[in-house]
Amino acid sequence: xxxxxxxxxxxxxxxxxxxxxxxxxxxxxxxxxxxxxxxxxxxxxxxxxxxxxx
Length: 54
Hints:
The protein is an alpha+beta fold. The chain contains 1 helix and 2 strands. The protein has a two-stranded antiparallel sheet. A hairpin with a 2-residue loop joins strand 1 and strand 2 (7-9). It is flat, with a radius of gyration of 14 Å.
């Protein structure tokens, strides 16, 4: 599965993905009592294994 901007597609070995570093950087804000990784996992489906779902 490929997830990008809250959209996702199932990909196969026939697909090719290109990943590159962008030309700019961003600053992230750290909020107290909010875990960034958990938020991203929930919102973007990071860590989900599509193979084990119906």
